[in-house]
Structures are given as structure tokens and as C-alpha cells.
């Protein structure tokens, strides 16, 4: 009985590499790997079918194994999205509160303005009619800075009316046909616009020079003018209504006060032509612009 118990405790271990040393086994594996790599490099299609078969076999398993990671990523994205939405919602609420405050301030200022107008018996500004037109032509070259719009006398367009884009003043109508009109741009050498420098209330004349930047003229020598000051129409002379946005001051290298217009004419596709009542005191000039 003792012999049977001893025999039952004996385990025979067999390994295919028991007669090969560990160093020799490593060499064999390296040679086999090198052989496989060489064959796959010389004839790539040899193992193509095997790879496809293996991929087909393991793809369901890979899909199952990757599902938890995909779900985790989806949950993470959802949590991140909710955090961003909360932050954006908070920001919008704060902006809404500020806008409500500004709205109340605007209502108070409007009421105060109406009261002052009534007290001073100020004549209210006439309502302005406008026509929206498309820019259909551009004569921008070294000698002429004008554009053609798709609205004319049939649409009520008249000579001298202001032309604006969504950003600011573009120019004025100088010729009006039946269905089209020509616009003299601010940058044209014949353009002269009475303007006002916001902040200093200093008046000047914006003069085109057939370049991208018209220049401010007839400023007093002691005028304190800096880069970034806003320029609007002054309304003097009755050519344009007051307060139309024109551009910002840009001091040139020569020290002259240029103005960068708000409206980039090269990118304007539609304009608004404003019918401003003509000043009856204006005298028609003898010369005609083109």
C-alpha cells in the first residue's frame, strides 16, 4: 500500500523543449519570426487569406471586448457635454441679466429723451425710407472708385442719397437710371463727406484719395486725434443724416489721420439706399461728377 501511495505522488512533466536549452529555443523562435517576416515581405499575398480568416474569427470577440470601452467613452462624452452645457447655460443667464439691465436703462433714456424733446419743442426727425439693392458692378480702379447697384428711379432712387452696408457708410448715389444707379464710394478722389470725431466732437471733412484709406482734412492743428477713434457723419451741409457710422482713425506713417472704413466694399454684396430729405438750402453745383 505504501508503494502505491508513493507512485500516485509521482508526476511526469514533459515539454517539447525539454531537450533544447532556453538559448537554443530563443534562436529557433527568432529564426522562425525572421522567416515569416521575409516571406510576408517578398510575397505579401501569401498570408492574406490567413489574416482575413483570423480577422473574421476574432472580430466578434473584439467587438464584444471593445463594447465596454465604447460605452465608457460615450458616458464620458455625455458627462463632458453636460458640463459644457451647464457652463454655457450659466453664461447665457448672466448675459441675459446684463441685457435686461441695459434694456431697462434704454427705456429710461428713451423716456427722458422724449421728455426733453417735448420740453424743448424739438422738431422730430422725419422717418426715412430705404431700398435694399444688390451690387452688380464695380468700377474700382486707379482712377474711379464707384459701384453699380440694381435699383434706380423706378424704385424711387435719387441722386445724393446715402448708401450703407451692414457695417457702415459706403458712399452716395451720383447717377440714377431707371433700374440701376451708380454709387460714388468714400475712397474716390471726388468724395467729400462732413464727419465728426466721436469723443472730441471735432468736425472734419473725409476726403477720398483713390486708395483704401480716405483721409481727414481741415482739422485744427491742436486736435487730439488717436488711433481707433470712431468717425460718424456730422450731418452738416444736409448731404447725409448725422450719426451714420463711417470708420475708425488710423494714423499713417506720414502722420496723417486716415480712416479705415467699417464697410469693406470689395466684400459687399447688398446695400441699403436711404432716402434722406434734401436740405432746401443746398445749392446745386455747376459741375457734375461723371
TrEMBL record:
One GO term of the biological process aspect: regulation of cell shape
Domain Rod shape-determining protein MreC beta-barrel core span(s) in chain numbering: 135-274
Q: What are the protein's UniProt keywords?
A: Cell shape, Membrane, Transmembrane, Transmembrane helix
A Pfam family of this chain: MreC
- Coiled coil (UniProt feature): none
Q: Where are the transmembrane segments?
A: 21-42
This entry carries the following GO cellular component terms, namely:
plasma membrane
Q: Which PANTHER family match?
A: CELL SHAPE-DETERMINING PROTEIN MREC
Quote the function comment for this protein: Involved in formation and maintenance of cell shape.
Similarity comment = Belongs to the MreC family.
Protein name as annotated: Cell shape-determining protein MreC
Organism (species): Micavibrio aeruginosavorus
Q: Which gene encodes it?
A: mreC
Amino acid at each position: 500500500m505504501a508503494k502505491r501511495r508513493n507512485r500516485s505522488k509521482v508526476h511526469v512533466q514533459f515539454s517539447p523543449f525539454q531537450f533544447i536549452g532556453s538559448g537554443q529555443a530563443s534562436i529557433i523562435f527568432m529564426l522562425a519570426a525572421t522567416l515569416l517576416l521575409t516571406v510576408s515581405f517578398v510575397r505579401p499575398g501569401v498570408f492574406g487569406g490567413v489574416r482575413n480568416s483570423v480577422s473574421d474569427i476574432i472580430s466578434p470577440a473584439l467587438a464584444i471586448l471593445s463594447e465596454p470601452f465604447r460605452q465608457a467613452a460615450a458616458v464620458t462624452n455625455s458627462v463632458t457635454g453636460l458640463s459644457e452645457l451647464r457652463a454655457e447655460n450659466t453664461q447665457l443667464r448672466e448675459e441675459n441679466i446684463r441685457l435686461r439691465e441695459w434694456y431697462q436703462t434704454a427705456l429710461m433714456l428713451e423716456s427722458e429723451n422724449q421728455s426733453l424733446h417735448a420740453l424743448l419743442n424739438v422738431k422730430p426727425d422725419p422717418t426715412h425710407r430705404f431700398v435694399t439693392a444688390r451690387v452688380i458692378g464695380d468700377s474700382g480702379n486707379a482712377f474711379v472708385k464707384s459701384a453699380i447697384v440694381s435699383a434706380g428711379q423706378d424704385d424711387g432712387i435719387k441722386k445724393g442719397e446715402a448708401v450703407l452696408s451692414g457695417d457702415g457708410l459706403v458712399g452716395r448715389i451720383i447717377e440714377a437710371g431707371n433700374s440701376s444707379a451708380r454709387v460714388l464710394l468714400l475712397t474716390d478722389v471726388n468724395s467729400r463727406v462732413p464727419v465728426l470725431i466721436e469723443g472730441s466732437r471735432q468736425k472734419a471733412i473725409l476726403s477720398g484719395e483713390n486708395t483704401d484709406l480716405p483721409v481727414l482734412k481741415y482739422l485744427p492743428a491742436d486736435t487730439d486725434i488717436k488711433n481707433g477713434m470712431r468717425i460718424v457723419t456730422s450731418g452738416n451741409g444736409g448731404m447725409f443724416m448725422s450719426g451714420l457710422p463711417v470708420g475708425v482713425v488710423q494714423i499713417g506713417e506720414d502722420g496723417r489721420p486716415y480712416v479705415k472704413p467699417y464697410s469693406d466694399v470689395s466684400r459687399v454684396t447688398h446695400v441699403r439706399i436711404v432716402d434722406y430729405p434734401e436740405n432746401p438750402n443746398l445749392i446745386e453745383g455747376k459741375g457734375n461728377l461723371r
